[in-house]
Design a protein that fits this description.
This protein is mostly helical. The protein contains nine helices and no strands. It has helices at about 1-15, 20-35, 40-60, 70-95, 110-120, 120-135, 150-170, 175-180, 185-210. The model has no long low-confidence stretch (mean pLDDT about 75).
Length: about 210
C-alpha cells in the first residue's frame, strides 16, 4: 500500500512542477532578467534550504511515537491541513485569480536561496504535515519503504529532487513561462489539478491510517 501512496505523491510532485509557486516563479523571473547561469547558486541555495527543512520536519515527526496520543493527533492534524490546502487550491483554481511574477528582481545567490526556504513559514507547515502523514504510511518491513529516519531521508530526497528539477525547468524557459503564467486559464488549471490530487492523496492516506 505504501508504494501506491508513494506513487500518488510522485504524481502530485510532478503536477506541482507546473504550478507557479514562490520558488518556481522566482527562478523564472531571475533567469529572464539576469540570465540562466545566474540561477545556479540560487537553485543550489534553494535546494539546500529545502532539503534541510524536510529533514528537520521529518526528525521532529519521528521524535513522537506514532502510536501515542500526540503521534495520532499530529497525523490527524496533518491530514486535516493537507485536505484544507487541497480544497483551498481547488477554490483558487476555480476563481478568477491570476498569478503574476515580479518584473524586476535583484541578483540573488546561494545564501539568499537558503534563507528564502527558512523564512517560508507556510512551507514548514506543509512539509511537516506531509511528513506526519507519509511517514505513518511507511513500514519497516521486507519489501516496504522504511519509516523513521530512513523514511525521512527518502522523502526529503524525493521532494528535493523534484524541486530542483522544477526550478531548473523554470530557469531554462523562464521567459516563456512568465508569459504562460500571465494566462489566467493556464494558472487556474494547473492549480486546480494540483488541489484535486492533493485532496485525493490526503483522503487516501487518512482513510488508510484510520481503518488500519
Amino acid at each position: 500500500m505504501e508504494w501506491t501512496i508513494l506513487g500518488s505523491l510522485l504524481t502530485l510532485l510532478a503536477v506541482g512542477m507546473a504550478v507557479p509557486g514562490p520558488n518556481n516563479s522566482t527562478c523564472a523571473a531571475h533567469a529572464s532578467i539576469h540570465g540562466r547561469r545566474s540561477n545556479i547558486p540560487l537553485i543550489i541555495g534553494l535546494g539546500i534550504g529545502f532539503f534541510g527543512v524536510n529533514v528537520l520536519c521529518g526528525l521532529a515527526v519521528n521524535s513522537f511515537n506514532p502510536e501515542s496520543f500526540v503521534g495520532k493527533l499530529l497525523h490527524y492534524l496533518g491530514s486535516l491541513l493537507m485536505i484544507v490546502l487541497g480544497v483551498f487550491l481547488i477554490f483558487i483554481g476555480r476563481s478568477k485569480s491570476t498569478f503574476h511574477t515580479v518584473e524586476t528582481i535583484p541578483k540573488l545567490g546561494l545564501m539568499t536561496g537558503i534563507v528564502m526556504q527558512i523564512v517560508n513559514t507556510k512551507q514548514w507547515m506543509v512539509i511537516f504535515s506531509l511528513m506526519t502523514v507519509m511517514l505513518a504510511s511507511f513500514e519497516s518491513e521486507p519489501g516496504g519503504i522504511p519509516g523513521g529516519v530512513a523514511g525521512t531521508l527518502v522523502l526529503a530526497t524525493i521532494n528535493t529532487t523534484f524541486g530542483l528539477c522544477s526550478m531548473a525547468v523554470w530557469t531554462y524557459i523562464g521567459f516563456h513561462l512568465q508569459d504562460r503564467i500571465s494566462n489566467p486559464k493556464y494558472s487556474r488549471v494547473a492549480v486546480f489539478v494540483l488541489g484535486v490530487l492533493l485532496l485525493i492523496l490526503s483522503l487516501l492516506m487518512l482513510l488508510r491510517y484510520h481503518f488500519a
